[in-house]
Write a structure and sequence with these properties.
Elements (H helix, E strand, L loop, with lengths): L5 E4 L2 H7 L17 E4 L13 H12 L2 H6 L5 E9 L4 E2 L8 E2 L3 H23 L8 E2 L3 E4 L16 H5 L3 E8 L2 H5 L2 E7 L19 E6 L2 E7 L9 E2 L3 E2 L2 H8 L5 E8 L11 E6 L2 E7 L10 E8 L4 E4 L22 E4 L8 H12 L9 H8 E2 L4 E3 L12 E2 L6 E2 L6 E2 L7 E6 L28 E4 L13 E4 L3 H9 L2 E5 L2 H12 L4 E3 L5 E3 L3 E4 L2 E4 L3 E5 L1
Parallel strand pairs: 1-8, 3-6, 3-7, 19-25, 28-33
Antiparallel strand pairs: 1-2, 3-8, 4-5, 9-12, 9-13, 9-15, 10-11, 10-14, 14-17, 15-16, 17-18, 20-21, 21-25, 22-25, 23-24, 26-27, 29-30, 30-33, 31-32
Length: 552
Amino acid sequence: MACRRNQLLISEEEIVYIKNLYGLLKEDQNNQTEITVDFEEKFPGGKYANLTEKGKTELQNKLNQTKEWLISNKGSLIVVQIEASESRIISTDKEQNPSPKVDLGYLSRRRAQTMKRELKEFFKTLVSEKVLPEMPIFEAPKILIGPTPVSETGQALPKYPISQYNNEQYTRVYLKLMAPAKCLTNINIEVMYNRVPDPSFKCRGGHTCDVARFDVLANGVSLGIADLNNGRDGGSRTSGKLVIDQAKAEQIVGQNNKKIKISLKCLSGSNCHSGTPEIKITKGNETLYHQCSPAMGRSDQREIQILTVDTCGNVVEKGTGDATNKDKNTKTETPAQPTGYTINVPSDYDLKDDNFIRSIAANQLIDSKGQPNNERFLTYGYNQTTGEWVGSPIGFKSGTGDFFVPETGLVYRRQGAKGVVNVDPGTRISKIVGKGKPNNNPPPGYTDVGLNYYDETSSGKYYVEKTENKDSFGQEIPELRPGKSPKKLEKEQAAGIVRFNLDDEAIEEFEKYFIDNKLVNKTSEGLYDVIATSITYGGKVFKKGTKLKLDS
């Protein structure tokens, strides 16, 4: 099989569409409005992971010829769409050994991913060289299946020349000048609850109540209502596909807004359901996002942002917090609960609990505006009798509001060296209790023992790093940094562990394909042990015995 003809196109239709919009279009000196770059790359049958070296070089050379046009349209919204086609002949995935059979469309999607990887590297270079101010946006790929018939067993028919099947094996890339609203048009957002538990979707199961109606918004524009009330039967519920039509897209984008904030606002009163909805974003037949998205706590009636997407629906930022659905409240009304988490005074803190709350937490935790507010923190939230601090909505005195962990973490002094509380930056704190006191609402994975240098938080998203800063006693002040601990990465590398940073949806896709086809096993430590002779993933070949670590 061959990917016969790859073309990089800027269509006249797209340019005409935005020619008079916001003054975005700037034609180059020759008034050139269409560029076609042809190159030929042959994928052997069942292959998709890499272009040949010759193909990479030719693609790079052809793309370099577009620089002048890109410079002349600097500031315009440039959208990339990859079109990939394959014939109807049944194939096997020959990147793996042994090679499993694959459904129609599988090879096309993988070849589109390969092309996207190469294009991203090209555009990253242009951004670093200041040729482009930012990365282009990738539209959902267009996956096609050729029309030439095959036999009942999926084989080529003798009456059709093999070249006809081969001509259906291609990828094509379009560069488009596009108004932001156009790419957003016809994107669908679905908010749902599924009653059947699934390890890949931690938010499934555990929800039975009639206080779960939400307004679904994009940049404040209502897309429709998600009514997940199911107190009668505990069953699955969905908003259905909430379609962003052209009128809504233009309203959402406004004055050339390139980021779209997806949010939920509860419509079910003061005892509104908490937890995590399942969100699916699609365009045409392609799924852009399908995961559990942390949302609000019980009783939170504000508009809560759960995702940020670009104008083509690609998720660029996800909400933080617990990805499970712990809210099992039934129809019975219960008193409002704190919207954030509870932490303890660290068990290795040397001084009294009172000192930690009044000196450490009060001076470091920040309010909703991102600022410390010692006076408000102590005046309205600290109860000297119980030795606890409580935020909204049930504080010692009303009005304190919850506080948040700052970006460098919550640092405290202890004997020998400073420690850092095992909680991620941005975590919302509603209550602080003493050392060893019962904690009914801890952050996910929380432990009350402080972190040392190069330890990771329980989420694995931050680690403790040394700094040159010192306190008045001459002790170094550590801080949390985003990413994986360098020490841990060194140990993994020495043990032959290969790490990939993937989101939950990509991990689910990996497991369904590689585990179901008996190519890898998942170990008790959460690693993926290659049991096939070899597998190919992310454009690289991994031999039997290699252990992969996939991080969400």
